[in-house]
Amino acid sequence: MSVSHTSWTAKFLAIVRYEILWNVRKKKFLGMLAIAFALATLSLAIDHIISALGGPSVKPKPDFVIGSNVGLGGFGFFLFAIVTVMNTISAEFESGTIVPLLAKPVSRTTVFFGKMFAAVLTLLVTYCFLMIYMTIGGFIVYGPQNNLHLVPLSLLGAIFSTLIWISIVLFFGTLSRSSLIALLAPLGIWLGTTIIGQIVGTLAGQGWILTYIPGSGNVGSVGGPPSGLAAGTPITTGTDSIGPNLINYILHPSWEVTYYKINIEEMTPGQQQQVPWEPLYSEPLSNIILMSIAVALIYFIVFVAISWYAFRRAQVTE
User: Fold this and answer.
1) What is the dihedral sign for C-alpha 145, 151, 157, 162?
2) What is the dihedral of CA 152, 156, 162, 166, to 10 degrees?
3) Cα–Cα distance between 208 and 210 in angstroms, integer?
4) CB-side neighbour CA atoms (13 Å) of 265
5) Which of 151, 155, 154 shows the shortest CA–CA distance to 125?
6) Where are the chain's structural domains?
């Protein structure tokens, strides 16, 4: 039994090593780091850029690091999922390397989860470097930072937020065996949930639907409507905001999030006025966090399970 266990572990680690070396040869890891630092640098420098173009001067932001969402946000998480696993499975079929890989004395299940573990490991290393960079950069650009002990929650939330997109990309890549479809299909989902979903939520007041699909989710606020003279603190409920919401809950456990819609009937064409926000309902921030984590886990488990099953049943031809 011990020998069998050791043998499986050795095979699993061999697949992980194979995948990581493949990523290194393809410069994928270096590309991920370059994209990460570019997005993080833009997040750090955006206020200075606006100020240089005639905008307001840059002021200290003691909560910048814990509110930065690892310097990426929703599009960054989606982009990293694409870069990480877009061709993890599909490229093996496209290039024909799947034949010698599966010819080795390793089960398809070991190959599948070894590749997934390597992808998550690569993502974790990248995000750790990114978080360190954002913390140092926040000190330099915006001055001393508060609550840095909560930074690991931001990192944990970023991993959760990216895993759901990883499972979706992997799903389309495994079923289609096409890297192009693995890119385009999730892109369509991301655009739909981000653009169309927000329009539906703001104008029709049906943003609760976004709670059950991946992405930015519904938009609410604490202490007032989303905009105007008495605007509150904006809160997004989707899987992309797990990290910031966890931090907000630790700092403000009693927060109640209120959702609004724009009352179009009260808007007068041609006149400048405040947006007529109509409150819909409220819920505790703790409910939002639990729901977003549950949604992320369910999507991840379902899509990974289907991808694993499809990979096991896939026909391989020379």
Assistant:
1) positive
2) 130
3) 5
4) 2
5) 155
6) 2-313
- CB burial class (10 A; 0-12, 13-18, 19+) of residue 165? buried
* β-strand pairing of 256-262 with 219-222: antiparallel
- CA angle 51/53/54 to nearest 5° reads 70
pLDDT in tens, 77-125: 888 888 888 888 888 888 777 788 777 788 888 989 999 999 888 888 8
Residues 191-221: pLDDT tens digits? 877 777 666 655 555 667 777 888 888 888 8
Q: Is 50 exceeded by the pLDDT of residue 311?
A: yes
Q: What angle do CA 189, 34, 246 make, to 5 degrees?
A: 55
Amino acid sitting at position 38? A
Nearest of 86, 216, 89 to residue 161 by alpha carbon? 216
Cβ neighbours around 296 below 10 Å, total: 24
Length of the chain: 318
Confidence at residue 1, expressed as pLDDT on a 0 to 100 scale: 46
